[in-house]
Design a protein that fits this description.
Rossmann fold, alpha/beta, 13 strands, 6-stranded parallel beta sheet, 2 domains, 15 helices
Length: 397
């Protein structure tokens, strides 16, 4: 059987989840599979320039009223059935994943659990029987999901993602007295990313006059507040505001950066961490349960620090900036972790292909009754309750 793989997502905005799926579709297409991406949301002007040149086709569902979720689910089901037998990957696309019961048995549905966000666990608990497979990007996610939902054990798989590393470690020619370049590439958000901690790290480094310059690439809901909080180091040239960067530009930035900073309180297996280490960037990141510890070996190829421990982040940056021999060793160790540790895109795509091919003989039951499921937040009763809570101050709008 010739595999046809279709991914959907609400938007094409730059995110770790979208980068992962774009790279996967591209690699599978290069390996001889048919791959496509369909956008199911309501923003036809979202910025997809980060995608660059890709091998797969991109489609969009016809726009409807936002409330017409069942109509969009039906259109998606028809799109997928035209391509059956196929593998369907709803990428952070929970509303459209609920179209799965309307698909024929020849269409297999695979959910990718990108991170330790409660929304994934809740969705799997309520709708896990829609999927032929649930792929977790870290061991921790696979183990915790299997422990919480033992009835899904047989369809939970751990496939760490990978990236395409350069042929060799990028050369960083450092002159004596040159600043340490520390990059942050991601959403500028207090929630999850904890950029309020990043701001404190920047301000303390500036106050202590450490030879560190921070490259901030990304946008997000707390961007204005974040940059207002680092006005002094920004004015002094110790912070560079790079804004939104297409993925090729992010890779160029990482090629020139010494350190990748991540202050998150939860993740999966961050694509940007894989990309950075594949370029020899030394990860200085939070020690969280999912993902980081599977890549970063503390003191060997990077540093794992407690969430919110600004002081330790500053101490590590001071240590690295003062020891060029240590920095050179860490650059090489980070690069080797990706290239020798199996975290390559070629390996990841091969693992996904093997899983997809195995699903033809899957024995577990999935829900297929010909009817889509209306997501709870679209149901009238749920909307009335939420409105009531908002009006009477029981819940934030």
């Amino acid at each position: 059987m010739s595999l046809h793989v279709v991914a959907s997502s609400p938007s094409l905005d730059l995110s770790g989840a979208n980068v992962l799926v774009a790279n996967l579709l591209d690699q599978l297409q290069r390996a001889g599979l048919q791959t496509e991406w369909i956008v199911t949301g309501h923003n036809p002007t979202d910025d997809a320039t980060w995608l660059g040149a890709r091998q797969f086709e991109i489609h969009r569902l016809r726009l409807t009223r936002i409330s017409d979720v069942q109509q969009r689910q039906k259109m998606l089901a028809e799109f997928l059935e035209e391509r059956a037998p196929c593998i369907y990957l709803p990428n952070f696309d929970f509303d459209m994943a609920c179209a799965a019961p309307a698909l024929s048995p020849s269409s297999k549905v695979v959910l990718i659990m990108h991170c330790d966000d409660p929304v994934y666990h809740d969705f799997a608990a309520r709708h896990g029987n829609l999927f032929h497979a649930i792929v977790c990007v870290s061991k921790f996610l696979a183990e915790t999901l299997g422990a919480a939902l033992p009835e899904l054990q047989g369809r939970i798989f751990h496939i760490p993602f990978g990236v395409a590393p350069p042929a060799g470690l990028p050369v960083r020619e450092k002159l004596p007295g040159q600043l340490l370049e520390a990059a942050y590439c991601g959403r500028i958000s207090f929630h999850q990313k904890r950029v309020q901690d990043l701001a404190q790290i920047i301000n303390r480094c500036h106050a202590e006059n450490l030879p560190v310059r921070f490259q901030i690439a990304g946008t997000g809901p707390d961007e204005k507040t974040f940059f207002e909080s680092v006005k002094a180091p920004l004015a002094a040239g110790k912070v560079s505001r790079r804004g939104f960067l297409p993925n090729p530009e992010v890779l160029k930035l990482l090629n020139k950066s010494d350190v990748l900073l991540m202050t998150s309180d939860f993740e999966g297996l961050p694509v940007v961490l894989l990309e950075a280490m594949s370029r020899g960037c030394v990860p200085v990141v939070t020690k969280i349960e999912s993902g980081m510890g599977e890549l970063v070996q503390h003191g060997e190829n990077g540093f794992l620090l407690p969430v919110g421990d600004v002081k330790s982040f500053v101490e590590v940056l001071a240590k690295i900036s003062a020891d060029s021999a240590l920095l050179s060793r860490l650059h090489l160790a980070a690069f080797d972790r990706i290239t020798s540790g199996g975290f390559t895109l070629e390996r990841a795509a091969a693992d996904y292909r093997k899983l997809f091919e195995s699903l033809a003989g899957a024995k577990w039951q999935v829900k297929r009754d010909g009817r889509t499921i209306t997501p709870e937040h679209y149901r009238l009763g749920s909307r009335i309750i939420k409105r009531f809570q908002t009006l009477f101050g029981l819940q934030r709008p």
